[in-house]
Amino acid sequence: MEIEPITLLAYAIIWTVFYFFLSNYIAELSRKKWTTWVQSEESDDILVEALQAVIEEIEDRMHDKLQTFQDSFFGSVGSMVKKGKDLDPMNNIRKAAKTGDWTSMLVEYAANKSGLSALIPQKQTQEGVNKSSESVEFGLK
Fold first, then answer.
1. How many domains does the chain divide into?
2. Closest to 89 in 3D by CA, of 122, 131, 45, 134
């Protein structure tokens, strides 16, 4: 039995068309069956169990990102609050009132009321005051 090339080509074309439609039909049936099963209530527990590792990984990553955000956010808020306290014109009056320095307190109050608080030089920090008083002893004890 001998098959002519045209007959063989015709069989190949028919088989290809049949296979194409058959595979599309099977894929469509499979997709419909899958979506029906996924939408049913019996699939919920199975899917959650199968995807538990993915859910845990997402929770871990989100927890890490939230912790990083909180650290940076509260750190920047803390530094802004500190800068805001340094810019508060009443801050020097409060410090002078605590130490009992009434003249400084009156000068700060007057400067704040007149809007000249930015022109008053800031006092040195406690370290700067201590270092300057130690360096100017003139040998007297």
1. 3
2. 122
The tokens for 120 are 């008053």
Which of 24-28, 34-38, 132-136 is predicted least confidently?
Answer: 132-136
Tell me which residue range forms the domain holding 105: 88-120
Q: Is 132 part of a structural domain of the chain?
A: no
109 assigned to some structural domain = yes
- The separation between the first and the last C-alpha atoms of the chain, rounded to the nearest angstrom, is 130
DSSP 124: P
d(CA 112, CA 120): 10
- 40-81, pLDDT tens digit by residue? 888 888 888 888 989 899 999 999 999 888 888 877 877 887
Same domain, 35 and 73: no
Q: Are 102 and 96 in contact (CB under 8 A)?
A: yes
Note the pTM of the prediction, 2 decimals: 0.32
- Give me 63's structure tokens: 């927890």
| H helices present in 88-125, as ranges | 91-99, 102-114
The encoded tokens of residue 138 equal 């003139």
3-state secondary structure at position 32: helix
